[in-house]
Amino acid sequence: MSDNAMHWTTLVSAEELAAALGRDDLVVFDTRHSLAAPEAGEAAWRKAHIPGAFYAHLDRELSDHRKAHAGRHPWPDDADFTAALARWGVTPRHQVVVYDAGDGALAAARMWCMLRMLGHERVAVLDGGLTRWQSLGLATDADVPLAAPAPPYPATFDWSRLLDAQQVQAHLDAGGVLLDARAAERFRGEVEPIDRVAGHVPGAINRPYALNMRDGRFRPADELAREFTTLLQGRSASDVVAMCGSGVTACHLLLALEHAGLKGRLFTGSWSGWIDDPSRPIARGD
Fold first, then answer.
1. Residue ranges per domain, the chain?
2. What is the DSSP secondary-structure string of the chain?
3. Model confidence pLDDT, tens digit, residues 51-86
4. Of residues 162, 244, 255, 266, which has the active-site annotation?
5. pLDDT at 258 exceeding the cut of 50
6. pLDDT per residue over 98-142, tens digit each?
7. What pLDDT, on the 0 to 100 scale, is given for residue 2?
8. Which among 201, 285, 191, 202 is positioned nearest to 243, based on CA atoms?
9. What are the pLDDT digits (tens) for 13-46?
10. Structure pTM?
11. Which of 44, 165, 220, 270 is the most exposed place for a label (fewest CB within 10 A)?
12. Exposure class string for 6-39: b at 16+ Cβ within 10 A, else e
């Protein structure tokens, strides 16, 4: 493989990743997670994972639960995430690949987004996740890899792309687009299995993240580009902010947007952050 052959910035196929395993400039992460059983993902990683893959936990490394009033999965501080990257040995020269059980929503797209917000270009989600990897008969093992620690990753988050509830309201007031990645019945407020209040942010548009997928893989970039362009109604992609229940599956929308050649921003607290203040308005229905 030539030195410039590995430059994946959104998605990578199982076949491409398999051919690159063992390269010293490649770091792979397993981020499998269950909201109902938060330790199940790591337990599954210990039983079998893509060879060499480290485990990144949604609640430990990809969130900061010390933060109050920031949603169910609070966005961590720069210093904490860059220190975690250092422990894993990740530097700006590395190609990073992140995967989860399947579609990328829990929580591969979240880690992809966090690295992107640091300005790390070469990070991609494994298209189809471990499910497709195993369906192809590709190797897994149970060996826990040893990291070669690196200096703290030399970057900070692009906070202009990470919005809180007040900034989201200003964004909507200015005519911006807010896409909600939750399932339609949660958006309409018909059911709410996780958060204490049902409904959505007034002015938001429902775009369930599952629509990004077909047969377990991301849909073609041109198809997604047409759909997002229709939703934008002539506005630029910089006018898009993505949200969900807690700022995790919203990252799946940002990955799909970038796969389609567009770039959006994230409402980090999302619905759980919005309803933290009972004075904020709530909408139900379509």
1. 11-135, 159-274
2. --TTS---SSEE-HHHHHHHTT-TTEEEEE----SSSTTHHHHHHHH-BSTT-EE--TTTTS--TT-SSS-SSPPPPHHHHHHHHHHHT--TT-EEEEE-SSSSTTTHHHHHHHHHHTT--SEEEETTHHHHHHHTT---B---PPP---SPPS----GGGEE-HHHHHHHHHTT-EEEE-S-HHHHTTS--SSSSS--B-TT-EE--GGGGEETTEEPPHHHHHHHHHHHHTT--GGGEEEE-SSSSTHHHHHHHHHHTT---EEESSHHHHHTTSTTS--B---
3. 999 999 999 999 999 999 999 999 999 999 999 999
4. 244
5. yes
6. 999 999 999 999 999 999 999 999 999 999 999 999 999 999 999
7. 40
8. 201
9. 999 999 999 999 999 999 999 999 999 999 999 9
10. 0.97
11. 220
12. bebebbbbbebbeebeeeeebbbbbbbbebeeee
Domains 11-135 and 159-274 share a fold: yes
Residue with tokens 């947007």: 257
Considering the domain 159-274, what is its CATH architecture?
3-Layer(aba) Sandwich (3.40)
Catalytic site residue 244? yes
Q: What is the pLDDT of residue 176?
A: 95
Q: Bridge-partner residues for 30, per DSSP?
A: 55, 99
Tell me: the pLDDT tens digits for 204-221? 999 999 999 999 999 999
